[in-house]
Specification:
Layout lengths: L23 H23 L15 E2 L17 E2 L2 E6 L7 E5 L4 E7 L2 E6 L11 E3 L2 E4 L4 E4 L5 E3 L8 E2 L1 E4 L2 E4 L2
Antiparallel strand pairs: 1-6, 2-3, 3-13, 4-5, 5-6, 6-11, 7-8, 8-9, 9-10, 12-13
């Protein structure tokens, strides 16, 4: 028999600490994965476990109002702090009935109705992949085609079963900010 089909005796030097045996294929697979980690850590991170667990939360709706916060940044998601929190980007980047993914902050901000802003994690609850876009009133993960509601982050279609976690956002002057 080959090394791949024959289990080594329990006293073998390549036995795992928990008493489970590792065959040659498993050892080689782990070595290959370890060699790839440096160049492809983001890809491997996206291949994590299944559904995330936790209690579904609802998003906090915030209406805009004038403040004296400085205006900064563009649509790429500046990270400077504003008096109300971390600046994500201009309010004008978040269309009514749609939203904007602020990839650097891992936050998606939606505006279901005029002046009502909602924040959600931009990490898909299916397998931890980044959310890609907001289109036609839905938040979309392009990896496995999960769609979420812009109103409450609830899954609408696809393999995801858990809502996107809420993220606190507010309007500070002409910017959307992430608050504590």
């Amino acid at each position: 028999m080959s090394d791949d089909t024959m289990a080594p005796p329990t006293s073998a030097p390549d036995a795992a600490p928990d008493g489970l045996m590792r065959d040659r294929r498993s050892v080689l697979r782990c070595a290959a994965i370890a060699a790839m980690v440096g160049a492809s850590a983001p890809i491997l991170a996206a291949c994590g476990g299944g559904e995330t667990t936790g209690t579904p939360t609802t998003s906090t709706g915030v209406t805009s109002g004038p403040t004296s916060a400085p205006t900064t940044g563009g649509s790429t998601g500046p990270t400077s702090a504003a008096p109300g929190g971390k600046v994500l980007g201009p309010v004008s980047d978040v269309p009514v009935g749609g939203g904007k993914v602020f990839a650097d902050a891992k936050v998606v901000v939606t505006q279901p109705t005029a002046g009502q802003f909602k924040g959600f994690s931009a990490v898909c609850t299916h397998q931890g992949n980044p959310i890609g876009s907001v289109e036609e009133g839905q938040i979309i993960c392009p990896f496995h085609n999960s769609h979420f509601s812009i109103t409450d982050g609830a899954p609408v279609s696809g393999p995801a079963q858990t809502p996107l976690p809420a993220v606190n956002v507010a309007v500070s002057g002409t910017n959307v900010v992430q608050t504590a």
